[in-house]
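Handout for the seminar on molecular recognition.
Each group receives one record of this type.
Step one: identify the two inputs.
Step two: read the structure output and locate the region that could contact heme C.
Step three: write two sentences on what you found, then compare them with the reference statements printed after the record.
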Amino acid sequence: MKSITTFIGAAALATLSLSVFAQPAQPDLRRGAELFGQMCIACHGVDGNSTTVANPSIAQQHPEYTLKQLRDYASGQRQNAIMSGFAAALSDQDKINVSFWLATQTKTPGYARNKETIALGERIFRGGLANRQVPACMACHGPAGAGLPALYPRLAGQHAEYTADQMRQFRSGARNNNAPMSGIARYMTDAEIEAVSDFIAGLR
Ligand code: HEC
Ligand code: HEC
């Protein structure tokens, strides 16, 4: 318990210094909305709530996290054939505009689907897997999965298929833009990944 408290303290401190330090150029929300309507809506839904499980919902996400992902896709630090092209097509100012506009949208709640694995999923989310040094997800992503500004993403309500796919990508190294997440996913089995992803889909 003590280490978790210390950890949250450190994370909050890091967040504080980040927000003071990395104040981005002023976002133009109107331009962000316009761009989203032209380039993103087909896959991520009208308001950033995607209806296709392979495409993440990105409404109400912390804008600094979204901005980091768009920059990572554009630089190749995060690899995805679809998103690399879209991210590279946006200027840095437009990445800021669309990220901050998405943060103004409201995430639609989701549902857990698998009654059999809910207890395991909740146990991992709230307590981790002590025997493999997998920390509790909520230490960084918050008790309700709302994330922690600025760089710990909201997970609550995300499609379980997308979350599980990202965990497998972190585990295999296909997603290689965050060392702590790769370290956490490395020790998880498919069954554990699927259980926690389904639990997260129902968090609100
Ligand atoms: C053709 C479908 C498609 C279009 C159009 C598209 N995306 Fe995506 N987007 C995806 C898919 C699929 C992923 C998951 C990729 C992966 O596994 O990394 C994704 C991932 C993302 C992520 C990462 C989300 C996270 O939680 O880490 C962001 C941010 C994003 N897209 C923003 C955008 C923006 C902004 C646009 C418009 C400029 C856009 N996307 C257009 C399909 C699309
Ligand atoms: C030490 C802090 C920490 C812990 C503990 C942690 N995460 Fe993360 N997680 C992060 C950070 C930071 C990111 C953002 C990575 C980036 O910038 O690309 C992230 C990203 C993610 C993503 C990608 C989200 C998206 O929209 O693409 C998923 C999924 C995820 N974490 C799930 C989990 C799960 C499940 C657990 C528990 C088993 C967990 N995390 C524990 C810090 C943590």
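Reference statements: Residues 37 and 126 are 37 Å apart (CA to CA). The chain has a mean pLDDT of 92.
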